[in-house]
Amino acid sequence: MRLFILLSWMIGSLLSAEQLAIVANNSFPLAQLDDHQVRQIFLKKTRYIGKTRLLPLNLSAQDESRQIFERDVLRMSTSQLRKHWTKIHYQGKRPPLVQHSTESIVAFIRKVDGAIGYIYQSKVPKDLKILYKVRQ
Predict the structure, then answer these.
(1) Domain spans of the chain?
(2) What is the DSSP string of the chain?
(3) For domain 18-133, which architecture applies?
(4) pTM, full prediction
(5) Per-residue pLDDT tens for 67-120?
């Protein structure tokens, strides 16, 4: 009986887990992205789409959604990311800007063309477009 309850709880948790979405404002030059494009943008390997300069945004390192993003989209551990940023620092590239809340990511994206970030899909306002849904 305990096993059944535990399995039911685990399945319910998985089904109710929120999905992350990669979002931008409506002036973003593409309607959607694939996982490779998202990785390239957030690792600063792609800096422009057409004439639009890209500005990826991160949440703070302790934020659960950032940990999910790094694991499921970037497919990198914290130490791998640290090595990546150390290496490309010498090419004049810096990690994505850090915002401390979903609200600040949304506000930044609304005001800055080319800004792109990740938030839970349930928090995406109607004036932003979803470019990619993260599979967990």
Answers:
(1) 18-133
(2) -HHHHHHHHHHHHHHHPPPEEEEEETT-S-S---HHHHHHHHTTS--EETTEEPEEEEE-TT-HHHHHHIIIII---HHHHHHHHHHHHTTT--PPEEESSHHHHHHHHHHSTTEEEEEEGGG--TTEEEEEE---
(3) 3-Layer(aba) Sandwich (3.40)
(4) 0.85
(5) 999 999 999 999 999 999 999 998 899 999 999 999 999 999 999 999 999 999
